[in-house]
From TrEMBL:
UniProt superkingdom: Bacteria
Transmembrane segments: 16-40, 60-83, 108-132, 144-165, 177-198, 234-254, 275-292, 298-320
UniProt KW keywords: Membrane, Transmembrane, Transmembrane helix
Entry annotated with the keyword Membrane: yes
Name used for this protein in its record: ABC transporter permease YtrC
Keyword Transmembrane part of the UniProt annotation: yes
Length: 326
């Protein structure tokens, strides 16, 4: 599945980035605990402070020392596929005597190992520091650390899948962002428009899924805000399942889709027209609702839909059908 020579090639190509991500994720939480401890000791040694006012508590309710734990996975996936494709390096890799499946597996497992391995080691070191330094209380630590591993891997899988579907860096990033809000675009935006047409009282109570916590956690971008830390640990099964799904999509796309369309928005040209239509519809509904919200009238609603149709058409047309030069 994975060849040593290919591993070595990937390591040498991204060595600096991989090491930077590893040490960032590994040392971030332990260093924050040490920093909190020294602040506590400084408080105790300060004659102007009452020792009773000095506290050494660790609370991860609003996130830890690295609240953007998902970002390194995004940068790594962009470097491994988007940047390599734009620089022509991916074409060189695919010309080597390895299957496309081997190339994708090697990239993914190298990136995933660095992301999860660094955080796992940081988690173990942090647990050791907590035992040695004995803080007054530790809140949500295990949930946050385990969740950060799962969510960072989900983000990495998502951007890798987007990179396997698309032919340039801009398309990879735009597709990744769109997928993070896709359930919102598919369910919430049409529901808001129906509420405008039918009426809030008549419609909203008939669609309880909008206010469902499970539905909200099916929107990947929700995990950027670590509010999930205070919820049930079983919530993390959702990003874990999404990470597996994105991995499968990325693998199939990388193996099956052509590489000669590099520079195009999608490597699989059959996606161009459906996505073009989807963007136009989403723009019509989005601008229509915002037009209604701004004017509180159906005239504003219709004008917003017209503006959305024009903007959605031109943005999606030039983004999808105009091939980017390397």
């Amino acid at each position: 599945m994975v060849d040593r020579g290919l591993i070595y090639k990937e390591w040498k190509q991204h060595q600096a980035l991989l090491l930077a991500i590893f040490f960032l994720l590994f040392l971030s939480t332990p260093l924050s605990i040490i920093s909190e401890y020294f602040s506590y000791q400084g408080c105790l040694n300060n004659d102007n402070w009452n020792p009773r006012d000095c506290q050494f508590y660790l609370n991860y309710q609003s996130g830890g020392s690295l609240q953007f734990f998902w970002a390194p996975g995004v940068f790594l996936a962009v470097a491994q596929l988007g940047l390599e494709r734009s620089r022509g390096l991916l074409d060189f890799t695919l010309s080597l005597p390895y299957s496309r499946g081997q190339v994708f597996h090697t990239k993914f497992w190298m990136g995933g190992t660095v992301l999860v391995g660094a955080q796992l080691l940081g988690y173990l070191l942090s647990k050791l520091l907590i035992i040695l330094l004995k803080p007054g209380s530790v809140e949500f630590f295990d949930h946050f650390m385990i969740g950060s591993m799962i969510i960072s891997l989900m983000a990495y899988s998502l951007v890798m899948a987007a990179g396997a579907l698309t032919g340039n860096l801009f398309a990879q990033l735009l597709t990744s962002f769109t997928v993070t809000i896709l359930p919102f675009l598919i369910v919430v935006i049409p529901a808001l428009n129906l509420r405008v047409i039918i009426g809030r009282e008549l419609f909203w109570d008939q669609l309880p899924i909008i206010d469902s916590q499970i539905f909200q956690y099916m929107i990947p971008i929700i995990y950027v805000n670590p509010v999930w830390v205070t919820d049930s640990k079983y919530i993390l099964l959702i990003p874990a399942a999404m990470g597996i799904l994105f991995y499968v999509i990325g693998y199939i796309s990388f193996v099956k889709h052509p590489s000669e369309r590099s520079g195009s928005f999608f490597l699989w040209k059959q996606l161009d027209r459906p996505i073009h239509i989807f963007v136009i519809i989403a723009s019509i509904l989005s601008f229509g609702y915002f037009g209604y919200g701004a004017s509180e009238s159906m005239i504003g609603y219709v004008l917003g839909m017209i503006l959305g149709a024009v903007i959605g058409f031109f943005i999606s047309y030039f983004a999808i059908y105009k091939k980017m030069k390397h």
